[in-house]
Design goal:
The structure holds 2 protein chains of 2 kinds. By secondary structure, chain A is mainly beta. Chain A is 10% helix and 33% strand. In chain B, a hairpin with a 4-residue loop joins strand 1 and strand 2. The chains are: A mainly beta, B alpha+beta.
Amino acid sequence: MIKVLKPGIYSSIQDRGRFGFRQLGIPLAGTMDSFSANIANSLLNNNLTNSVMEITMQGPTLEFFVSTKIAISGANISPKINNVSILNNKVYTINKGDVLSFGILITGFRCYLAVLGGFLEENILNSKSYYAGITSRMKLNKNDRIAISIQNFKSFDSKGILTNQTPFFETDILEVFPGPEYDMFSKQQQNKLLSTKFNVSSKNNRMGYRLRETVLKHSISMITSPVIPGTIQLTPEGKLIILMKDSQTTGGYPRVLQLSEKSIAILAQKTTNDSVKFKLNSYK
Amino acid sequence: MPFNIIFKQYGENAILIEWPKVISKEILNDICDFSERIKQKNIKQIIDINFVYSSMLVLYDNLNIEFKQLKEELLKIYETVSIETKTSKILWKIPVCYDEIFGMDLHFISFEMQLDEEEIIALHSNAIYTVYGIGFLPGFLYLGGLNDKLNFPRRVQPRLVVPKGSIGIGGSQTGIYPQNSPGGWQIIGKTPIYIFNINRKKPIEISTGDCIQFYPVSFNEFEIIEEKCKMGTFNLQKHFIND
């Protein structure tokens, strides 16, 4: 069991998401940066479907009531065990009574804490991913207790180590594919979309990232249709909204571009004022 | 009668299937029927299907199937003539209290449209609405079939919190707020029932393609039904109608 001494700004338990219920209007949710989450789970030899803790910008302070192994990947938020600094992308042993805390944000925006065997939160519709109205918690609060799997790790052999220490998300290039309405725009308009350097506005969260620039005002109206995480919508006033993991399941704005899963992960590590550019990839 | 449908690759692991871009019951029925037939095939690489109005999105496991192959499989299913078995549809009857305690904007739109409140209530509750999809929020129904006389613009100033169960009108649409949420629709009443309840085995009983009709209840009846809903002893009335 883990006790939350300080919750941080926005920490939640996430797994790969809630598939099979979008027809009821239920978002997928799941880890924003699935690449970092996979690294953290892999280092512990966990199943990639195990849940992790997604930590945003400012880390929580967590007291462990059981011994386990942990690994952290993604943003570098200066993690510490009992006030001694530790590194990302490396396995550490946690002894009963140890306290994991975080310091200043150095790179990225979200990090992923994996524990041996994952967190034992309630499974709602086949997923542990927090989402308001679906799970009883939407984020960690002070004094929350979260069960973790108790495992005998005497024989745990962690030779796994991440050799490439430059995080994959240290780029401002987002790979995109044409969205369903991409062809409704002229070549010139498409070029504008692809050549503009965008900045993330302060309206960015698990649901979506709004970009600051006004690019293409339009009056295209369409019938509401499904959307997915990574969909880039163009509002009539000419601004872009990039839908993220908590995105609603349907939308009514033209879907001009679609991010790859890796680019969703890269964007998840950006915050207000960070810049991004799109690089178009075509379908095979 | 199959329509001319278009398959579009949508990112790395989704297919968007588009029917002619109009809102029609024939198209909706065709999509519901197609979705049923896909489910029956149990294609294990398909991880989610959702559809609304005139399009469907299929999420798939791209490690185990490619777009082209899945598209072929889906097209084959679509082109297999279905034996029309469904002749009737489910009509759900939803109680609504149009009292001004809940219908905060009823008086305002009655004044603006020069329609008696009774007439608004009659027009709203006589219509049979078709569920064209569920989205926006968990359990939010996209309903078609609002009487043209009730077409009224959204509020200039959206409310920060519209209570769960509120019934609103926004332009040519009407709908039920499945949870407390910000909203700009004109609120004309409230239903005591839980449209969406995660603690139920089936969080929402109503499906896309079903029909719903509202029926007016008094404030007293509202409270009785609300109490029954809390205890889990209220069952939604369900009828079968020929469409």
